Amino acid sequence: MYHVLLALDETESRAVAQANAIISLPESNSEVKASLLHSFTDNPSGASALQIASVRRAQEALEDAGVETHVVEASGNPADVILDVAEEQDVDCVCVGGRRRSPAGKALFGSVAQSVILNADRPVLVTGGGGE
C-alpha cells in the first residue's frame, strides 16, 4: 500500500487539485491510502479538521474514487507539522498544493511548500492551485 500525506490548507480548489493528483496515481483505488492533514495555527474555537471545507471536499473526492482516507489534525507551524506527521506515519510521499503567483513570483514557492520541499526526507508532490 502506497501511503500519501495530503497537507491541506483552507483553499478548496487547491485541496481538490491535490485529491485529483492522488486519484490519478496508478491503481489509486486499491493500492493508495491517503492521510489528510490540516494544521491549525490558531484554533481558539476548538474546531476539528472535518469542519474545514477543503478537508471535507478532498476526502469526498478521494473516497468517491475508492481511495482509503484518514483525517489528521494538529496545531503548530504548518511546515514543521507536515514534516513531523510524515515521519510519524512513515508516509511514502507528501502532497502539497502550489499557489498561483505573479510572473515575478513564479520562481518561488510559498513558504510552507518551500520548507517542506527543502526539508523532507521523502518525495514531495506539488500540485497546481486548482484554478484559484
UniProtKB/TrEMBL annotation:
Record InterPro entries: Rossmann-like_a/b/a_fold (IPR014729), Universal_stress_UspA (IPR006015), UspA (IPR006016)
Q: Which organism is it from?
A: Haladaptatus litoreus
What SUPFAM superfamilies has UniProt attached to this entry?
Adenine nucleotide alpha hydrolases-like
UniProt cross-references to Pfam families, sorted A to Z: Usp
Annotated UspA domain residues: 3-127
CDD domains xrefs? USP-like (cd00293)
Which stretches are transmembrane? none
Please give the PANTHER family that the UniProt record associates with this protein: STRESS RESPONSE PROTEIN NHAX (PTHR46268), UNIVERSAL STRESS PROTEIN UP12 (PTHR46268:SF6)
What family name appears in the similarity comment?
Answer: Belongs to the universal stress protein A family.
Q: Which domain of life is it from?
A: Archaea
Please state what the protein is called.
Universal stress protein family protein
